[in-house]
Specification:
single chain, 194 residues, Nucleoside Triphosphate Pyrophosphohydrolase, 2 domains, 4 helices, NUDIX_hydrolase_CS, NUDIX_hydrolase_dom
């Protein structure tokens, strides 16, 4: 009998790689993040512990103006003690559809609304230690309004051409993974390759 049979995995061509949860508990319950600690069986039948951050998911918005320039943000990020250049983004509230989150976050953070929304993809930015996913949306038909930042949220917005964004990725000025991936998507979408 194979280990797959012993563990009673769901049929899958990759089932032989699966780790099977045997039990677990919440190791830390924060206001925003939670840390789960699970006991699992590895594919070879040996037990081990897996710790990971539970995250509600988030959205990333790629706001493109009619002239092809992009609305970006500068925001200080405490864990790395520096200001990052990022796309507008935010966490999905419980029960909220990701497109609703994207529209809300764009308005709150930048004051802009968009008439044309397109879902591009979902990414998993930290697969070794988090269940977080990010849904990326392209937003066009932008209209300016008044931002309504959350209490304790400080950022500034600016416009930049895609060519600058690509150069900033290349020279290390942009390192935020969601923004790097979004820029590469944007380059392909605007060139009508994707």
């Amino acid at each position: 009998m194979s280990i797959r049979d012993k563990l009673d995995l769901r049929p899958s061509e990759n089932g032989h790689l699966a780790e099977v949860r045997q039990g677990g508990s919440l190791a830390y319950d924060g206001d925003f993040l939670k840390v789960q600690q699970d006991q699992v069986l590895l594919p070879d039948g040996k037990p081990t512990i897996r710790e990971y951050i539970k995250h509600p998911g988030a959205v990333v918005i790629l706001p493109v103006f009619d002239d092809g320039s992009v609305l970006m943000e500068r925001q200080y990020r405490y864990p790395l003690d520096q200001v990052f250049i990022e796309f507008p983004a935010g966490k999905i509230d419980p029960g909220e559809e990701s497109l609703v989150t994207a529209k809300r976050e764009l308005l709150e953070e930048t004051g802009y609304t968009a008439t044309d929304w397109r879902y591009l993809c979902t990414i998993h930015n930290a697969i070794a230690y988090s269940d977080e996913h990010l849904d990326i949306f392209l937003a066009r038909g932008l209209s300016e309004g008044k931002a309504d930042l959350d209490e304790g949220e400080f950022l500034e917005t600016f416009k930049a051409p895609v060519s600058d964004l690509l150069a900033w990725v290349r020279n290390g000025k942009i390192t935020d993974v969601k923004t790097v991936i979004g820029i590469f998507w944007l380059e392909k979408v605007l060139a009508e390759k994707w």
